[in-house]
Amino acid sequence: MPRYLGVMSGTSLDGLDIALIEQAGSTRLLATHYIPMPADLRAELLALCAPGPDELARAALAENRWVALAAQGIASLLASERLSSADIRAIGSHGQTVRHEPARGFTVQIGNPALLAELTGIPVVGDFRRRDVAAGGQGAPLVPAFHEALFDDGSRRAVLNVGGFSNLSLLSPGQPVHGFDCGPGNALMDAWIQRHRGAHFDRDGAWAGSGQCDDNLLQALLGDSFFQNRGPKSTGRELFNLPWLEGHLAALPAIDAGAVQRTLLELTARSIADSLRQAQPDTEELLVCGGGAHNGTLMTRLQELLPQTRVASTSSKGVPPDWIEAMAFAWLAHCCLEGIAGNRPSVTGAKGLRVLGALYPA
Fold it and tell me: Alpha-carbon dihedral of residues 282, 287, 289, 293, nearest 10 degrees?
């Protein structure tokens, strides 16, 4: 049975997720490995998301460090599973997104697939998003095709990924999978708690849960034109960032930091719930993956906002929520090698189905 590795580091930049799958008709998760992101590399990758001096050289150096980290993690996973590089057909490497501006015709993921192939001795499929953008698409989200393969059972279901940003995949009988980015997931909450409490994230949503939502701030944030666009649409740190938040805060009376955190959680929950009600109002079940699946305050709020929909982690279907994106890029590597389209025009708005990714032989 062919085995693939998927390597993913998302917009939260907490670390690298590595998933080993077996692909034979269906996808089976065999093993996983996680590597925390070194603080200085995380800071540099975040800095590269905005214009700055000497960007080309800094991006090249940062991606080589990212690749070295990925290669180290892959070696550890293979050793723990008593496998060699010859046992893996290919690595699907997403790389790290540093710019995503499909309206201007580009998206940038750094991750030097050639170096990863050299360090691991395994063929690498990378650069998944630009083929969809070249075909007029958003280049994101790409996971709905995998969500469809993994979770489509004929019911009216949605799959929600909450990483740095949130995206929905809508599964409905007899209809092509639909999906889009909803808006901020954890990115703003993580940035705010980092600034005020020095923590990387709000564990279980505890700080947000202790505060009161500020309705004036919430309405101001939800007034952004992104939330009125029904898609295809995707987003990132280019739009939703601390300066964006600070601009809204400056126009209002002073708000307690805890209330801001609670309002940011409400922004995430409301943007998701509003999007789902608009796009697929009769959804029976919402399956949540990504780091947001561990945020009890967020999960509770989603269930309150969607009383007719069962809200549950993907673990309820036997798939750990933390590994689905890494699994998706392992699956997309399989699709590339088999000549199977990995995008969905109903999601990204591309002109048609396209095989995604570029192969870097070992």
Answer: 100
Question: Is pTM, for the whole model, over 0.85?
Answer: yes
Q: Nearest Cα to 7, choosing from 85, 56, 77?
A: 77
- Average pLDDT (169-187) is 94
C-alpha distances in Å from residue 29, one per residue of 83, 322, 328:
15, 12, 11
**Per-residue pLDDT at 248:** 97
Residue 318 zone, left/alpha/beta (φ > 0; ψ -120 to 50; rest): left
For residue range 142-151, what is the model confidence (pLDDT) as tens digits?
A: 999 999 999 9
Distance from C-alpha of 302 to C-alpha of 304, rounded to nearest angstrom: 5
Distance CA 226, CA 326 (A): 27
Residue with tokens 């969905």: 344
Cβ(31)–Cβ(13) below 8 Å: no
- 155 Cβ neighbours under 8 A, 6+ residues apart: 171, 173, 284, 285
Burial 138-155 (b: 16+ CB within 10 A, else e): bbbbbbbbbbbebbeeee
Structure token pair of residue 203: 């564990």
